[in-house]
Design brief:
single chain, alpha/beta, four-stranded parallel β-sheet, two-stranded parallel sheet, 10 helices, 12 strands, globular
Length: 338
Amino acid sequence: MLGATGYLGTHITRALAEDGAQVTILSRRPPDASLQKRITVQLLPQRPSTAALAAALADSEAQVVINAAGVTQGDIRAMVQSNVRLARYVLGAAATVPGRPRVVHIGSAAEYGTQPEGSAVTEVTACSPFGAYGRTKLAATDAVLEAIDEGAIRGTVLRVFNPVGPMSPAGSVLGGVGAQLAHQRTLPNPQVETGPLDACRDFVDVRDVASAVLLAVTHEASPPVVNIARGEAVSVRDLVRRLVELSGVRARLLERPALASRRSQGLAWQEAAVEIARGQLGWVPRYELHESLRDLWNAATAMAPARAGGPDRRSPLDQYAEWAATAYRPSPSPQRPR
């Protein structure tokens, strides 16, 4: 698996290990701390190539390759390298390994770009991304689909909409709000600053994303592209206010245009059609959004003391494991189908 220590990757890796899979993380750096059972690390060169990845896949006897690596913001060169070139290297490597491991590529709703309000985007909706992130993610998806059409690989693309839940990164709207609330909850006049919150988005719990990956890993007849979302557009401002209320912190909410995310500028409304995920992949979201916000807040407060004392040197997997063992209580929602 690539991108195992990122936000999505952390949850996917843990879900795979808990499901009984032997997980090999392909990384250019050794982990900062110990890893869980059934998880190993295979180091890659600083500049991965098709040949290096092919050797790593062969050595690990990979049956499935999950590519959750990627860069969401910053320098365009870094986005091209991490979002496009690395994906092409993975495809080239998978095509050369005996047995041709399945490829599950993590795509993004940003690939669709602006769509008419009130119309749910389907997997065949024309894509028109307007930012560097969306364009590079679409280029990677196009490469995956081309390789599938040519018969070079077996695989699928999961187009993930707006993931939310425990360990949400501070660079996301809700993760940033949670981090600010956790750090300011003891201050006399706490305030939370965000970019404009006028948009409506389709949010999905990050653990539900992980369960979709589990299904895609074992589903030999997976469609080439599958939307992973709840299938409902909700107000971002409403979710932020619900998170503030849930936290119990009497914080003032300030929306500042200067803090607008370049990744989502100009995208006022987005909702996914999820019939393919439900009907062909057999995936149903397990978590309600109030559970996602609750667990986001529990994780943010659990991690805040460690961060206050300096950088947290533990791996994201270890941080998540600690939070899950102490703060998390299983959701009463139905289990995912098998």
